[in-house]
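SAMPLE LOG
Freezer: B-3
Tube label: C17
Construct: single chain, 571 aa
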Amino acid sequence: MKNKYFIIYVITALLSLTSATAQEQLWKGTFEGWDFGFKDGKGNRDEFWKIQPNGELHAIGGTWYDRQSGMRTAKPYSNYELTLEYKWLTPGSGDRDGNSGIWIHGENNFAQDKGGFPNSIEVQLKKGEAGDLLRKGMDIKARPGYLNKGKYGNGRIRHEQLPRRSDPKGTIEYFHKEWNTMTIRCEEDLISVYLNGFLINQGNVFKNGKAVTSGFITLQSELKNLAFRNIYIEEIENTESCSISPIVYDKHGITNNVSREDDYAEIEIGGYVVLCAITQSEGTWTWTGPNNFSDVGRCITIPNVQEDQLGIYTATFAGINGCNASHNFEIGLEKDISGTYHFINVKTKKYLDADPNTVVKQGNNEANDNDTHWNLIPSTSGYFFIDNDKNDRGPLMAASSLHNSISYEAEELLMTPAPRREWKAIKVGYNTYQFLSKDEARGYLTAVVGNEKVINTNNLIGDGVAIEWELIPVFNTKKIDNKRTINKTNPSNVLITPVPNNGSFTIHFNGQQISDLIIYNMTGQNVYKKTFGEQKPTSHLLVNQNFVSGIYILQTIDANGNTTSTKFMVD
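STRUCTURE (predicted):
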């Protein structure tokens, strides 16, 4: 489950002006220019690596985990986009059927693992987990939206919290005989992983409190046979770069004595808040806010917050080397929670999951497409429908009697408020809620401890942790208006990073076949347009425009004529 709170230094919003150079073919059908290492010094190059007549590179793999080899670039790289195709040559979907990876930001020392792999970050290729981010000798923390949780494999539990890939709708991973395309984009300390056109993971890399921004690239040969081809690298030129981590210490932090990576501070009138703009560069910080507020310093403290102090606070950073950036924070009251979420039980760590037979259950430890997407839709005053995101499924229905399993109803009943269809959201922590049935004879939405499949109404007094649910927002879903009639649509998969930005940003299409793209300012003026036509689908688009500060609307049109709109801010 994603951590609610993050270490201050790690998670950053990268504001950069970027341009790309020509692609370099990294694999040219020869071992010239590559270095090789072998775990515990066992083996040689020809045992693990074979060049095929068609130019493909085959990683033969070892017989067990102590038989591995690394094939490493001759030089380190920074600020680049690595694209490659890989294909598993062995059937099956288990750990022993395919387990290798791409190691990046590696240090110049094969001896760190007795000749196997240097300190690096691994982008996993293991079947069923491709795109997960692992570490050796350095640390990595997930960007917001990617579950920062332990992993399970080989009967072992990984207690460390590592970035786990997300699974956007339509993500495909081929397990046998078909080529997968992976793109690994490294900008400063930020790693972004794309699998078959979808952005599936992001994390920031550091070691001993300092960002790691460069290193060697190593291909891994570990268990079973794997083919590589079309390995290209494209360096990204950075003309100016700043990295800011927005940190808040609000009423939830005071309760738990921890800070949180966020730019929204949730307070009660009369409380106090601390806002911090953490950077990796030295310089000066200035702050502005409501009622002519001004201050200086990396962090500001606002005690005894009153209503006229709610609003936007802007931190502006001027680096000693010419690096400049700004970030907007907001101090406000409790947010409206209408939207689309994963529900993860605090006690059982399982997802609220709908199967095709109107049964609501606890899913496994991973998101499962729209089965685990739930819309919170306002119904009568103070209550919500909890509606599954798939078009053939309606709202969550409290059990007909206490302790019975919960179900969901047919879609057409969504428009009809009724006590057993409505739930009160009771906040018990940041992004953590209890849900109480409006029907007084029922109880709370409860995960049954010890029975992974049962969700029921239980515990009328609400004193058990199995009734607490952490709400993890689902990326790129639209807030649902407070209307009784809801038209469900498939949410846009388009993602803009970073937000806010300075006019230089990346649009991630996440598998959508986009034909046209238009950006409007708030006066309705068309300020940018891109037509893709019959071009080969692309996974993302870099935009670098001199937009003035304000709100913009990105409109995309797919190959079927469907239109979606996404708002974003330019500082």
